[in-house]
Structure to design on (273 residues):
């Protein structure tokens, strides 16, 4: 069911399933809510599912985008909180892919009463290297070159990034879908989201987390190495770290059964406490 309120239409908010507990699923950079379609059937019978597109992504209202608001991850966290307020959501499980793990953390610190716990799928609080103590995976020069490629050859940028993100063993159909998702995003929007994602550093927020966190780490991930997941586990006050026998950065698409099983276990443990 699509929510017809102003916020609902702005963020293309969709509600599925049934149940007393709410799962809110947030997509990563260059994606949209459709990327969660493999997990929806796994939870729709037992949970209320809230899916949405960040402003500028998917079927959201592009005219609501502004570089001032969405030039930082705090603007995307504002989308999350706007939706929570619009739907009167409380005690939600926030499931965020990639950068949405950090976005969810930002939102949960601003309005902790809205959240029960967080699930982060292939997350990273910082994609930059800060040797010798932290390696996010990329030098600032690497990421600057990636942004420059967006400006010079947007299609080429998408064709380069999609297989890197999806992983070497992923089906070509999924790689093509991700590349198409990148290409369908307005270049101005994509660049703003990319800069907010890849050049930000939110490691300082990890010790401030107020809710239990499940970190789902892919065994082989070109964007978020296992050491990043371990770093997050060590710095979050209450976290569970699960390494999945999976390749790539989009395990909710390539290995949905593993992701669903891990989330179910986490939710069951939380319900017993």
């Amino acid at each position: 069911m699509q929510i017809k309120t102003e916020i609902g239409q702005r963020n293309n908010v969709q509600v599925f399933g049934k149940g007393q507990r709410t799962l809110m699923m947030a997509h990563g950079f260059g994606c949209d809510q459709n990327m969660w379609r493999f997990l929806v059937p796994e939870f729709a019978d037992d949970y209320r599912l809230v899916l949405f597109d960040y402003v500028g992504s998917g079927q959201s209202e592009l005219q609501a985008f502004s570089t001032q608001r969405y030039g930082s991850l705090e603007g995307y966290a504002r989308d999350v909180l706007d939706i929570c307020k619009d739907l009167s959501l409380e005690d939600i499980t926030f499931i965020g892919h990639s950068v949405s793990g950090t976005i969810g953390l930002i939102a949960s610190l601003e309005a902790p009463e809205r959240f029960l716990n967080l699930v982060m799928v292939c997350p990273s609080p910082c994609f930059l290297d800060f040797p010798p103590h932290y390696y996010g995976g990329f030098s600032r020069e690497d990421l600057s070159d990636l942004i420059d490629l967006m400006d010079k050859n947007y299609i080429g940028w998408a064709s380069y990034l999609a297989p890197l993100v999806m992983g070497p063993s992923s089906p070509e159909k999924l790689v093509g879908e991700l590349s198409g998702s990148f290409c369908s995003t307005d270049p101005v929007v994509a660049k703003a989201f990319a800069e907010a994602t890849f050049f930000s550093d939110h490691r300082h927020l990890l010790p401030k987390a107020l809710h239990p966190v499940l970190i789902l780490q892919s065994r082989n991930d070109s964007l978020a190495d296992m050491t990043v997941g371990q770093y997050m586990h060590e710095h979050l006050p209450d976290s569970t770290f699960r390494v999945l026998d999976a390749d790539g950065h989009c395990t909710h698409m390539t290995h949905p059964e593993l992701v669903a099983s891990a989330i179910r276990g986490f939710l069951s443990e939380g319900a017993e406490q």
Notes: DSSP finds eleven helices and nine strands in the chain. Strands lie at 14-17, 22-26, 48-51, 92-97, 115-121, 129-130, 134-135, 213-220, 239-247.
